[in-house]
Amino acid sequence: MRILVLTAFGVSMAFVEAAVVVYLRGLFYPEGFYGTMAAFPIFYYGTEVFREAATIVMLASVAVLAARRGWWERAAYFLFCFGVWDIFYYVWLRALLGWPPSLLTSDVLFLIPVPWVAPVVAPVAASVLMIAAAVWILATKTRSLLEGTE
After folding, report:
1. Which residues of 38-47 are buried (b: 16+ CB within 10 A; e: fewer)?
2. CA 123: distance to chain centroid?
3. If DSSP codes are grouped into helix, strand and coil, which group holds residue 39?
4. Omega cis (within 30) before 41
5. What SS3 class is residue 119?
6. Are 33 and 95 in contact (CB under 8 A)?
7. Model confidence pLDDT, tens digit, residues 3-30
8. How far apart are CA 33 and CA 26, in angstroms?
9. Tens digits of per-residue pLDDT, 126-137?
10. Which residues contact 94 (CB under 8 A, 6 or more apart)?
């Protein structure tokens, strides 16, 4: 049940993040976005950095609230939520804007501490690995607790 709730949170939060990008692209790049943030005013850039930081805080907060055990469970839930959120961010962008046209399309992935630019496949692959690691951690630690070896 906990994983389903965290999945719902990640998918929903991804929609909110994608909606923000839809609005920003409509306002600042009405002819289309081509991987550069040159037309982006510095005030909004700073706001975006803080929005991204707030996103990480929200993902970490829900992971802490979901965990019943130690730091490993919080870390696993954070990895899981982050992975679901990041994958569905691109799913929603595709649904709302028809973008990205391919997984090889470059994107500005993150602005903290500096802008990261890479093909969309990079964060998607990393997210799949985060989800897999989270599931493995949760399964391994739960099995250890049930067997009394921890």
Report:
1. eeeeeeeeee
2. 9
3. coil
4. no
5. strand
6. no
7. 999 999 999 999 999 999 899 888 888 8
8. 9
9. 999 999 999 999
10. 100
